[in-house]
Design a protein that fits this description.
This protein has 74 residues and is mainly alpha-helical. The protein has 3 helices and 2 strands, in the order H-H-E-E-H.
Length: 74
């Protein structure tokens, strides 16, 4: 059960919602896996290619690599 799921369950309880948000809101990261994000689909974590400033996940990169000028070696 994620953060948003719990917020949906307690949305009508104002006091509980405020206390939950105060202690459980995800914090902004300055570094690490969760800071890197695919600029196309928004995935974070593993598989984000940041070399050359691409910032695409590996799935999106495979789809648009030829448009960016990359060639597949055979």
């Amino acid at each position: 059960m994620g953060y948003e799921d719990v917020l949906d369950q307690i949305k009508h309880k104002e006091g509980d919602r405020k206390a939950f948000e105060k202690h459980n809101t995800p914090k902004e990261r300055d570094y690490g896996k969760s800071k890197k994000e695919c600029r196309r689909c928004g995935r974070t974590g593993r598989g984000v290619i940041s070399k050359y400033g691409l910032n695409y996940c590996r799935q999106c990169f495979r789809e648009i690599a030829e448009e960016l000028g990359f060639k597949q070696l055979k």
